[in-house]
Amino acid sequence: QTEFAQIKGNDLYIDDVKATDLVKQYGSPLYVMSEGHIRKQFNTLKTKMIDKYENTLPLFASKSFSCKAIYKLAMEYGVGIDCVSAGEISVALKAGFDPKKIYFHGNNKLPSEIQYALENGVENFVIDNFYEIELVEEIASKLNVMVNGLVRITPGVYAGGHDYIRVGAKDTKFGFSSHDNTYLKAIKKVIDAPHINFDGIHCHVGSQIEEIQAYVLAMNKFVDIAYEIYDIFGIVINKLNAGGGFGIQYTASDHPLEFDDVVSTIMDIIYKGFDRRNMKRPMVLVEPGRYCVGNAGITLYTVGSYKYIRDIRDYISVDGGMTDNIRSSLYNAKYDAVIANKAGEKADHLVTVAGKNCESGDILIKDIMLQDPQPGDILAMFSTGAYHYSMSSNYNQLPKPAVVFTYQGHSKEVIRRQTFDDLVAYDVD
Ligand code: LLP
């Protein structure tokens, strides 16, 4: 139970809305997101960073959940965003997002995407590689605009929940290496590019980070890099982006850090480091995605068929699967769940929750104690707000579920459920 998911009587309520009523109204499976929780998280970014330290900007990492509704909420709290494609930028702009608060990321920004971003007023780029420097310079010069370039450097810190989401180590496709002088060559090239203003440095050590040490190591390294830049080029960096990766609680075995603690640790190291050399303190950015929306999400499924293999395993199947949650099969991610309409009962049945996709790896939860799941029951799976809808697919031509926001006893659809017509919308007859 969290502050917004409560059991009353036998039923699960989300922001005071009965989970089974949501399924009746919007269908199943259903992504429910607590707007109350998202607001709480954005408010933490505001009060513990924007209001507390001058010249800071938390960015919401779009990739975790991108739609117009979330961008509108982020805007309300003065939070910026990071985008990794022209598509994400386009959705944000359609929501009315200020292009000046968009940071454009990605290890292979296409010429068409760079052009789209620049034509639409996006001026902050996280520069990833040498080819990009040439492309950005060429396109910015053609359009006669200036770009602020943050140079992405891999700090060589190895942290985070899974190999695929540990991206700060040496062997990664992202950013310029820091274990040789590659990053210095990149910075020189950016400084020399007439249409790119060298704005600072960026790092991202990984995702679902639960050790403060990862940020401490990366920030100490970045202070050293800032000194080096000052000594070699005579430039004090204007911005320092410490990346995202703030962990959340999926199950009882997760022990996430407090946002406040991570931010004050980061700020402390940077401010002390810059003060030591009398360098003007930089603008500090972070870019959490999962932290903002992860715990807000609850996916509601309807339980269908079952298969009991004597002495081996009891399977129950639900009406979604790897199409709406790829994380279980891709990362072996762990989740908690309850039977929403029996939430007050004792969870005394050991089952494995399977999806309905035609793939034997389509298992949502391996071994969980549930309240005697029967066909027609509603299974509520927690912490599905980040990288679920945004990583969903139409495998097996399953229509994508709707996304519903709940807030103070009310619900509203923010993304409608796909229909069979949507499944052929791009087919050319
Ligand atoms: N900044 C950069 C440069 C990133 O690469 C990422 C995530 C973030 C920020 C946001 O990370 P967060 O705070 O959400 O952990 N699909 C995976 C996660 C991939 C993350 C990729 N980059 C998952 O489902 O766990």
UniProtKB/TrEMBL annotation:
PROSITE patterns: ODR_DC_2_2 (PS00879). GO terms for molecular function: diaminopimelate decarboxylase activity; pyridoxal phosphate binding. The modification N6-(pyridoxal phosphate)lysine is found at residue 63. Substrate binds at residues 290, 327, 331, 359, 387. InterPro entries: Ala_racemase/Decarboxylase_C (IPR009006), DAP_deCOOHase_LysA (IPR002986), De-COase2_CS (IPR022657), De-COase2_N (IPR022644), Orn/DAP/Arg_de-COase (IPR000183), PLP-binding_barrel (IPR029066). SUPFAM superfamilies: Alanine racemase C-terminal domain-like, PLP-binding barrel. Pathway: Amino-acid biosynthesis; L-lysine biosynthesis via DAP pathway; L-lysine from DL-2,6-diaminopimelate: step 1/1. It catalyses: meso-2,6-diaminopimelate + H(+) = L-lysine + CO2. One of its GO terms (biological process) is lysine biosynthetic process via diaminopimelate. Specifically catalyzes the decarboxylation of meso-diaminopimelate (meso-DAP) to L-lysine. Belongs to the Orn/Lys/Arg decarboxylase class-II family. LysA subfamily. PANTHER family: DIAMINOPIMELATE DECARBOXYLASE, GROUP IV DECARBOXYLASE. NCBIfam families: lysA. This is Diaminopimelate decarboxylase. It comes from Faecalibacillus faecis. The gene is lysA.
